[in-house]
Amino acid sequence: MDLHRNFSSSRLVRLLSDSTGVGVAASDQDFAEKLSLWLNAFDAVKLHAVQQPVRASADGPPPDARAAASTAVAADVQRVRSALVKAIAAPVPETQADADAEAGYTPYRQRYAEQQRQMELKIEPLRDRVRQALSRVSPRLRQLAGLDAVLGQSLAGREQKLLAKVPVLLERRFEHLRQSGRLDVFGQEWQAVLQAELDLRLQPVMGMMEAMGHDARKSQ
After folding, report:
1. Greatest CA span in the chain, whole angstroms?
2. SS3 state of residue 150
3. What whole-number distance in Å separates Cα of residue 133 and Cα of residue 45?
4. CB 88 within 8 A of CB 118
5. CA 103 to chain CA mean position, Å
6. In this structure, what is the dihedral angle of CA atoms 74, 158, 149, 131, given to the nearest 10 degrees?
């Protein structure tokens, strides 16, 4: 994991910055330093507990079983992701010129909120299933699953507050495009931002999947 990755490298942040003109200042703090500002003492204790050294152990499923488990997890993730991508791609009621004055941004705001709700309903159970699969593979992956569980719980509130601001920023973009007579491009931008948010929400899942796949290849 690259702990020095700048937060502004997120595709979601870049899209919002480009479309709304809200700049994101670069920070001298790395990931670990920023993370320490987001966690309280209880969170730190939990993180310390799951980061204790893991003793090497030969226990765990055989290589074929590990490969099969990795394949099953990948299929589960793909199924959930495909369903969410399909929902994002579904058309929003078109903002025709004669309807803009009446509906305005409302259909997009309502649809965005619904898509965020669907992401929360589908991704959190998926993330838990991936953790459970990791925990059955090896002590090290069990530790990774525990670390993800602690971080997920500790950062959930902050994540929810930050992502709730996305539709607000998009409304500014909608009004700007309407005033400039370029509202026809908003639908594509709206979908691109939703897709970027989906990718952001799936990052912990994809990271655990990558670790599980690496373990399966290494054990063969």
Report:
1. 68
2. helix
3. 25
4. no
5. 30
6. -10
pTM of structure: 0.85
Structure tokens at 62: 């055989």
Write out pLDDT tens, residues 87-113.
999 988 654 444 454 578 999 999 999
> How does DSSP assign 38-93, residue by residue?
H--HHHHHHHHHHTSPPPP---S--HHHHHHHHHHHHHHHHHHHHHHHHHHHSPP-
Q: Around Cβ 10, how many Cβ atoms within 10 Å?
A: 18
The angle at the Cα of 187, spanning 181 to 188, to the nearest 5 degrees, equals: 110
How many other CB atoms are found less than 10 A from the CB of residue 49? Answer: 11
| Model pLDDT, residue 205 | 97
**169-204 exposure pattern, b = at least 16 Cβ within 10 A, e = fewer:** bbbebbeebbeeeebeebeebbbebbbbbbebbbeb
From residue 205, give the alpha-carbon distance in Å to each of 40, 44, 126, 132: 24, 22, 8, 12
Q: How confident is the model at residue 30 (pLDDT cuts 50, 70, 90)?
A: low
Cα–Cα distances in angstroms (integers) from residue 72 to residues 15, 69, 220, in the given order: 33, 5, 17
Please tell me the number of Cα atoms within 13 Å of 30 on its side-chain side: 6
Structure tokens at 130: 């991936």
Q: Residue written as tokens 């509130």? A: 157
168: its two tokens: 């607000």
